[in-house]
Design a protein that fits this description.
Its EC number is 3.1.13.1. 40% of the residues are buried. By secondary structure, this protein is an alpha+beta fold. A hairpin with a 4-residue loop joins strand 29 and strand 30. The protein has 18 helices and 35 strands.
Amino acid sequence: MPDREAILRFLSENPDRASKRDIAKAFGLKGDTRAELKDLLRELEDDGLIERDRKMLRRPGTLPAVAVLEITMRDSDGDLIARPAEWLEDHGAAPKVTVRQSNAGRERGKSRSPSIAASIGDKVLARIFAAPHGKGMSYTARIMKILDRRDGLILGVYRSAPGGGGRLMPIERRGEEYAIDPDFTGDAKDGDLVEVETAKLGRMGLPRAKVHAVLGSVEGEKAISMIAIHSHGIPHVFPAEVTAAAENTKPAPLSGGREDWRHIPLVTIDPHDAKDHDDAVYAEEDPSPDNPGGVIVTVAIADVSWYVRPGSALDREALKRGNSAYFPDRVVPMLPERISNDLCSLREGEDRPALALRMVFSAEGRKVGHRFHRVMIKSAAKLSYQQAQAAMDGNPDDKSGPLLEPVLKPLWNAYRVLKRERDRRQPLDLDMPERKILLTPEGKVDKVIVPERLDAHRLIEEFMIQSNVAAAETLEKRRQPLIYRVHDQPSLAKQEVLREFLGTLNLSLARGAAIRANAFNGILAKARGEPYQDMVNEMVLRSQSQAIYSPENMGHFGLNLMKYAHFTSPIRRYADLIVHRALVGSLGLGEGGITPAEEAALENIAAEISTTERRAMAAERDTVDRLVAHHLAGRLGEAFDGRVSGVTKSGLFVSLPQFGADGFIPVSTLGLDYYHYDEAHQALTGEKTGLGYRLGDGVEIKLVEVIPLAGSMRFEMLSEGQKMPKGTRSFHKSGRARRGTPKKPGTRPPRGRR
């Protein structure tokens, strides 16, 4: 058997051969020694020394064998330099990767087909090659596919120089600064948001750039979301051929086997400001004497697969975007408005094609059966969540009143039936309210609210979950390849960190590899109403794995479901469009089914759309941070109530609940004491006084610095530390906090999201 160091060294040097089978083969392990290897790998994973990426293993902070890269610059030799599209901040600085332009065929001495030519700004899928280099690893990459070819333009803020010319200041924390010669400033004025073209690097000094376009003042109302869109590389302008294809699309006909369901009074229930409507619902009692008290739930989903065919210009652009991105002042849609807001939107009183299913449930909420149909519907009404809920609460209006008895009450009855099974299933029940920023007409922050969570929201959510389960079950039964929405259980290492933290609150978490979501629900229930409720919810969230898309099913831990695939939002998610095509093809429902080429590419597609989803989430979060930072820039010196949202060796992150954003307090500003960082207890504790701060503590802070472009804020602590609970200062997994080298304000700890 190899020792631990030999395995870790092998994983570092062979990221492309990092499965358990590869390790066994490399070390010649057979028979019983394979079982020993499995135990050793589990120990390494528990200790946080390796992490699992589907079937592959790797060292934390290293790149996998295949990764999505963003090409950011050229070095002094003219070689392209890239960085991983996704990288956890707690792994340190993202590694630089030198991109090799040659292709696999040429390297193996086979066909001399052209190289895949990439340029700055492109996003690529690449095979990674690693080699030891000093204290770390050196990476090179071979491009397998260009995922997103950008125009090579970089966004930044122009700052003029006294002697002429100026500099481009980056709008993201990891961005490069560029020099702009006087002849290449165009019409840019100091403080303008500009796009620049980059030039080849010189041997010395800053890289140089040329102003390509001036987008207006960085203080303009539309600048904030545009910064996030550019910095995260989100395509926001549809190519001419895509727009033309959308405008020339004709409405789907009622022919070719499409059933006429226009007599069914389906209704849409959405946010009051929604412009596209993916889903419509209807419910009724099951008339079958064999199912007393049972219900029939009908869900109709926009038939996007009819309009967006595989390989078309619309399809290529939709895959590039992966999903729609939502900002407080705008939406960057996956599909052009002609498709998303018109032909595919289930508008009230208009004929629209849909992929629908009828699901039959017993009185106890257990599904008896389901069946998919390709149909034409006519929505009976467009209702908001608040409108539908008000009608059920005894306050109907002119539109919801006539629908109360025939439509709304049967829907609520069906929800009560389905909720019985949901309560038995016990999905993860985190209490983490989503905040929504409301803007003034000028695009400034007006206020931040927490929308009320209504039964109308829960009803639609449960209907959609059951529809997603039905889609996965049908495709599995047909042996049809698909893309699942998967959520792995928390790693044993994260469970142990959470377990140690809960121990400080006299809460316990059961041990075992086969943990269930209801184990966390028990913890959350015990914390409900306690001062540490928010702290426990935050720590449970951080312990969770990230949900992704995958052609391999591993179930959905958070929902406590074995089979789950996104089906209900094909207007705004490419994953759902793939599932629609798979259903159309496998069930023989007509044109627009999945193709063999798509089936062969499902692994790459899943990786791409998992990345674009995280990209959109990061851009949305950065926009909120920048909006709040701009909003508070004029309030330096004011005191605010906050809550400790993150603890690191370098200091504390404090969130401002009334604004939904956070800032940083460097440990060097906390006082004269020496502070120790305790990871297990998520605390900073003073060595002399024993006073400190823990995750979830309510504190009063003063705003002392704001960097609006970076969306970052720095605070000063006004509250005195609290006496730490017994055991918090046992520093077996802690370290003395660094003083005098605080992180840049706004550099946040990693956040979990299911």
